[in-house]
TrEMBL record:
Residues 38-417 form the Aminotransferase class I/classII large domain. It holds the Pfam family Aminotran_1_2. Its cofactor is pyridoxal 5'-phosphate. It comes from the Eukaryota. Gene3D superfamilies: Aspartate Aminotransferase, domain 1, Type I PLP-dependent aspartate aminotransferase-like (Major domain). Pathway: Alkene biosynthesis; ethylene biosynthesis via S-adenosyl-L-methionine; ethylene from S-adenosyl-L-methionine: step 1/2. Belongs to the class-I pyridoxal-phosphate-dependent aminotransferase family. One of its GO terms (molecular function) is transaminase activity. It comes from Dioscorea zingiberensis. This is 1-aminocyclopropane-1-carboxylate synthase. Keywords: Ethylene biosynthesis, Fruit ripening, Lyase, Pyridoxal phosphate, S-adenosyl-L-methionine.
Length: 454
C-alpha cells in the first residue's frame, strides 16, 4: 500500500483510541452486561435528546420532507450544489449568533459546510499550510488533532506547553517558546489552532488569553483558527467569548482569523456530520468550498435542520435548558469525584472534566500514568482518556466525560471509582469486573513508548 495510507501519523495507536477498542469488546449494559466497561472517553451530549425528539414529534411535516404540504423528496434527492442549501446556511449562521448572545453576526456567504468539524479543521490546513509547515496548539489538546491536522496534510503540530500551575492557561511566554521551538526545527509556522472552550480542559478561554493570541498572530503575520464547537456548552462564569467578538472592528485581522463550528456537541448530533468553516478571507472560502465536495452534508439533513434551527423559539429554549442540564450533571459528577477523594480542574464548559489523579500514581512518571489507566480501564471498567494522549506534559491527569450516559450509569461509574480508590491501590486483588489479562497492545504501551506518545 502507499505510504500515506500506512503511515502512523493517524494517531490510531494512541491510548485515546485503544481504550475505545477495549470498550467495544466489553460494553457496559445495565441488563445484559452489568460488569462491562463504561464509556467515559466519548465526548457526546445525550442530556437533551428528549428536547430534540419532542420537536421532531411535533413537526412531522419536516420529518416527512414536506413544505407547505408538498413533498420535497425529489428536489432533495437530486444533485445539490456543494455550496449548500441557502436556507440551512442562513439558519446555521443565525443559530451561531444566538449561541454567542447575538454579540456578533455571521454572514451565511462566508460559511463553508463540511462533514463535521474533523473535515473543517483538515480543510483549513489544506487551505492555509503546505506539507512541512506547522501550526501551534496549546496543550493539553484533543487527541484527534493528530489525525485531523497531520495525517493527510503533512502539516506539523508544535505544542504550546501550558502548565497546571496557572490552570493550564495560555501565556505569552509559552506561545513565544513554541514559536522558537518551531524555528529550531526549521518549520515555517503558518498559524495557531485553539479549541475554545477547551477540549479536554472544559474551560472557556479568557479575554486576556485571546488578546495574547491576537497580538501574537498580528506580530508574526500568521493565522488563527478557533475551534468553537463547544461554544453552546458553557454553563458557568466567565461566559463564552468568541474570537469573532474580540476582533470586532479589526479589519486588519478579518483575513487571518477563522472559526470552526459543528452541531455535534451543542445539539448532540455527531452522527449527522454537520460542520462548518466561517472565514471572511475570500480566498480561503473559495478554496474550502471547492474542497467541501469531498465531504458534503446530505440535502436531507440540511433541510431538516434548516427547519429546526429556523424555529427561533425552540432554539432559544434549547440553548438555555441544555446549559442548565449540563451544569446540573457537572455538579453531580464533581461532587461524586470529591466523595472519592479526587479533584478536577475548575471548569465551566464542555462535556467532560480534567481530572487530577496525580495522588494515585506510584511515581511521577508517564509510565505510572499508563499503569493507572490500565487498571481503571481493565479492572475498574471505566474507559477514560490519559493526559499523555492529550499531550499533557504532567503525568496524572485524565479527561473523563459525563454527558454521554444516564444519571444511573454515571452514579455506577462513580461508585466503581470510589471503590477502587478506597481499595489498596498497591494490591492486584481488585477484580471488580473479572476482566481478562492485559491484551498485547496494552503491554506495548510501556514507559519506553512514552516518547512517541508525547
Amino acid at each position: 500500500m502507499v505510504r500515506k495510507a500506512t503511515c502512523n501519523s493517524h494517531g490510531q495507536d494512541s491510548s485515546y483510541f485503544l481504550g475505545w477498542q477495549e470498550y467495544e469488546k466489553n460494553p457496559y449494559d445495565p441488563l445484559t452486561n452489568p460488569l462491562g466497561i463504561i464509556q467515559m472517553g466519548l465526548a457526546e451530549n445525550q442530556l437533551s435528546f428528549d428536547l430534540l425528539e419532542s420537536w421532531l414529534a411535533s413537526h412531522q411535516e419536516a420529518v416527512a420532507l414536506k413544505k407547505d404540504g408538498e413533498f420535497m423528496f425529489r428536489e432533495l434527492a437530486l444533485f445539490q450544489d456543494y455550496h449548500g442549501l441557502p436556507a440551512f446556511k442562513t439558519a446555521l449562521a443565525e443559530f451561531m449568533s444566538e449561541m454567542r448572545r447575538n454579540k456578533v453576526e455571521f454572514n451565511p456567504e462566508n460559511l463553508v459546510l463540511t462533514a463535521g468539524a474533523t473535515s473543517a479543521n483538515e480543510t483549513l490546513m489544506f487551505c492555509l499550510a503546505d506539507p512541512g509547515d506547522a501550526f501551534l496548539l496549546p496543550t493539553p489538546y484533543y487527541p484527534g488533532f493528530d489525525r485531523d491536522i497531520k495525517w493527510r496534510t503533512g502539516v506539523e503540530i508544535v505544542p504550546i506547553h501550558c502548565s497546571s500551575t496557572n490552570g493550564f492557561k495560555i501565556t505569552k511566554q509559552a506561545v513565544e517558546e513554541a514559536y522558537r521551538n518551531a524555528k529550531k526545527r526549521n518549520l515555517k509556522v503558518k498559524g495557531v489552532l485553539i479549541t475554545n472552550p477547551s477540549n479536554p480542559l472544559g474551560t472557556a478561554m479568557t479575554r486576556d488569553e485571546l488578546a495574547i493570541l491576537i497580538n501574537f498572530i498580528t506580530a508574526k503575520n500568521i493565522h488563527l483558527i478557533s475551534d468553537e464547537i463547544y461554544s453552546g456548552t458553557v454553563f458557568g462564569s466567565p461566559g463564552f467569548i468568541s474570537v469573532k467578538e474580540v476582533i470586532k472592528g479589526r479589519d486588519d485581522l478579518t483575513n487571518k482569523v477563522h472559526i470552526v463550528y459543528s452541531l455535534s456537541k451543542d445539539l448532540g448530533l455527531p452522527g449527522f456530520r454537520v460542520g462548518a468553516i466561517y472565514s471572511e478571507n475570500d480566498v480561503v472560502v473559495a478554496a474550502a468550498t471547492k474542497m467541501s465536495s469531498f465531504g458534503l452534508i446530505s440535502s436531507h439533513t440540511q433541510y431538516l435542520l434548516s427547519v429546526m434551527l429556523s424555529d427561533k423559539d425552540f432554539a432559544k429554549k434549547y440553548i438555555v435548558e441544555n446549559k442548565r442540564r449540563l451544569e446540573q450533571r457537572h455538579r453531580l459528577f464533581v461532587s461524586g469525584l470529591e466523595t472519592a477523594g479526587i479533584s478536577c480542574l475548575n471548569s465551566n464548559a464542555g462535556l467532560f472534566c480534567w481530572v487530577d489523579m496525580r495522588h494515585l500514581l506510584k511515581s511521577n512518571t508517564f509510565g505510572a500514568e499508563m499503569e493507572l489507566w490500565k487498571k481503571i480501564l481493565l479492572k475498574v471498567g471505566l474507559n477514560i482518556s490519559p493526559g499523555a494522549s492529550c499531550h499533557c506534559q504532567e503525568p496524572g491527569f485524565f479527561r473523563v466525560c459525563f454527558a454521554n450516559m444516564s444519571e444511573g450509569t454515571l452514579n455506577l461509574a462513580l461508585q466503581r471509582l470510589k471503590s477502587f480508590v478506597d481499595s489498596d491501590s498497591e494490591s492486584n486483588n481488585y477484580n471488580h469486573c473479572r476482566l481478562p489479562s492485559l491484551p498485547k497492545w496494552v503491554l506495548r504501551l510501556s514507559p519506553s513508548d512514552r516518547k512517541s506518545e508525547r
